[in-house]
Amino acid sequence: MAAASVPLRLAGHGLGNRLAFERDPLGFLLHQRQYGDLVRIDDELYMVNTPALVEQVLKNTNSTFSITRDLLGEEIDGSRASEDLAQWMRARHVAGRGVNRSGLRAAGDRMAAVVARHAEAWRDTGTIDAITALEDLSARLIAEFCLGPDPGRVPALVARLQDARLPGALPWPGWAPSLRGRRLHRVERELAADVSRLIEERGTRPEGPASVVVDQLIDACGQGVLTHQGAVGVVVSTLFAAHETTAAALAWLLLLLDRHPQVRRQVVDEVDRELGGRLPTAGDLPRLAITGAVVKETLRLYPPLWYLERTVAEPAELGGHRLHPGQRVGLSPFALHRDARLYDQPATFHPARWTDRPAHTRLPGYAYLPFGAGPRMCLGAHFGTVAMTTTTATLTAGYQVTRAADCTPTFDTRTILQPRGLTLDITDRAPMSRTYR
Ligand code: HEM
């Protein structure tokens, strides 16, 4: 491992760094890298900037380093001995068995039909707000996947939970955050109640179509591995973690295809050649190599989770520097993915880097992290990739998706990384190309 640099304060004192981080988070993350592999932002926060140090932090999460906020931003006890952590790890293990490749194969075959239905409605409207429409789609995809073909109000409640969490564009008055917190908890309770009812209904009527995820959870509850509340919790967290990230990634992907018509042409040719006008199934995806590379490259340039953080739980040494419990360590997939030491022309959208001379054959481990890594790696990495590839193939096969002339999207980093203000025009590609209708 390269020796870590002396930790540095960029702007002379810690507060300056914090303000710079808040003002322009992405610019700050790219800027701080030049100060070394391990950079001190202030007494509390350090950044790691190399795959080797990132590996040390992510691999040792749940022991030396911990996650101290849940997916909704609430504080939790993530220490090694915590019962909450043990319960979460059991629940994620069981849910993970349902999110595996065989569980996904059946769901993947149904997925394109859901995308096609949404796309027709978008085409009828003509113009869509990308984030709202894609969140609606991904909430539906993940709700069906977790809970079966009839997830009731769950997709709509997931969208409401998201709204309740997002800070407004204007600063909040002092009393407002507690109002927002109350609203967030109300929607969370409603969502948990609906999920709980759907799991119970499935438990009493085990015949008929359902989802592998919910059946795995019910089995685990029956064996005493998991409580009913634990099963509900993992579904709520999964719904929430899945829909916003997948929607943001798809929005970036559609924006990139609009900006790079020659790549779009390659995707259209591949989809026409491999699918011949029908909807994609899970079995088609391995042959959609260019589409898959576009998905990978989008997640490299615009990883929705652009910044990850851990709290030091036990005395640690990182890059030759001692860290103490309570201090925090940050790492940025966004900055790592744009590091010229790891990627040629890192700021260029170049999907062929994943197919022509596969970048991953030369990349060190922990250099490509859209889904994180280690024991807390994303539970839905495979589902997210399948959902993005299926959606891209279905949309490009049938429709022309272009950025509306009057919109200028900007970087939104308030929660995950999204193209704020992206509006898309959806029209039929060519009547003959849509034989699946
Ligand atoms: C393109 C889409 C997605 C991206 C970029 C993404 C990214 C991530 C990342 C980076 C983490 C790790 C956070 C950390 O280390 O602190 C994570 C966690 C998680 N993701 Fe995803 N995700 C996506 C889609 C999904 C989907 C589809 C699901 C569910 C099927 C899902 C479920 C989860 C869960 C449950 C966690 C928490 C894991 C834990 O803390 O143990 N994600 N995601």
TrEMBL record:
<dbReference type="GO" id="GO:0016705">
    <property type="term" value="F:oxidoreductase activity, acting on paired donors, with incorporation or reduction of molecular oxygen"/>
</dbReference>
<dbReference type="Pfam" id="PF00067">
    <property type="entry name" value="p450"/>
</dbReference>
<keyword id="KW-0408">Iron</keyword>
<dbReference type="InterPro" id="IPR002403">
    <property type="entry name" value="Cyt_P450_E_grp-IV"/>
</dbReference>
<keyword id="KW-0349">Heme</keyword>
<dbReference type="GO" id="GO:0004497">
    <property type="term" value="F:monooxygenase activity"/>
</dbReference>
<protein>
    <recommendedName>
        <fullName>Cytochrome P450</fullName>
    </recommendedName>
</protein>
<keyword id="KW-0503">Monooxygenase</keyword>
<dbReference type="InterPro" id="IPR050121">
    <property type="entry name" value="Cytochrome_P450_monoxygenase"/>
</dbReference>
<keyword id="KW-0560">Oxidoreductase</keyword>
<keyword id="KW-0479">Metal-binding</keyword>
<dbReference type="InterPro" id="IPR036396">
    <property type="entry name" value="Cyt_P450_sf"/>
</dbReference>
<dbReference type="InterPro" id="IPR017972">
    <property type="entry name" value="Cyt_P450_CS"/>
</dbReference>
<dbReference type="GO" id="GO:0020037">
    <property type="term" value="F:heme binding"/>
</dbReference>
<dbReference type="GO" id="GO:0005506">
    <property type="term" value="F:iron ion binding"/>
</dbReference>
<dbReference type="InterPro" id="IPR001128">
    <property type="entry name" value="Cyt_P450"/>
</dbReference>
<feature type="binding site" description="axial binding residue">
    <location>
        <position position="378"/>
    </location>
    <ligand>
        <name>heme</name>
    </ligand>
</feature>
<comment type="similarity">
    <text>Belongs to the cytochrome P450 family.</text>
</comment>
